[in-house]
Amino acid sequence: MTVLWIAAGGAIGAAARHGVNVWSGRMFGTEFPWHTLIVNVAGCFIMGVLVELMALRLNVGNEARAFLTTGILGGFTTFSAFSLDFALLVERKAMAGAAFYAAGSVFLSLIAVFAGLALVRGLAS
Predict the structure, then answer these.
(1) pLDDT tens readout for residues 80-121
(2) Predicted TM-score of the model (pTM)
C-alpha cells in the first residue's frame, strides 16, 4: 500500500513541478534554468519543514511520511532528498562524509550526464 501512496504523491509532485516550469518560463524567461532552481530550493525548504514537523509535532504513519517526502517532494525534486541526506550527515557530525557526499554527488552526476550524452552521440555517428 505504501508504494501506491508514493506513486500518488509522485504524480502530484511531478504535476506541481511542471506548473513551476510553465510559470517560471512566463515570469522569467527560459535563458536561465530558474524552474530547476525554484523547485530545488522550495523542495528543500519544504522537506526541512515537513521532516521537523513530523518529528516534533505531527503523529503521522509511515505511509503519510512516504506520501509527503518520497512521493510529493520526490516527484517535485530529488534535490530535497539529497539535501536531507546531507543535513543528516552533518547533524551526526560526519563532516567528512557530508563533504564527500556533496562533492561526489555533484561531480559524479555531472560526469554521468556528459558520459550519457557522449555515449548516445558516439552510437549515433
Answers:
(1) 889 989 999 999 999 999 999 999 999 999 999 899 899 999
(2) 0.79
Give the span between the Cα atoms of 76 and 13, in whole angstroms. 4
On the question of pLDDT at 61 being above 90, the answer is yes
49's torsion region: left (phi>0), alpha (psi -120 to 50) or beta? alpha
Residue showing cell 550524452: 117
**According to the 3-state scheme, what is the secondary structure of the chain?**
CHHHHHHHHHHHHHHHHHHHHHHHHHHHCCCCCHHHHHHHHHHHHHHHHHHHHHHHCCCCCHHHHHHHHHHHHHHHCCHHHHHHHHHHHHHCCCHHHHHHHHHHHHHHHHHHHHHHHHHHHHHHC
Phi, psi angle pair for 33, to nearest 5°:
-75, 60
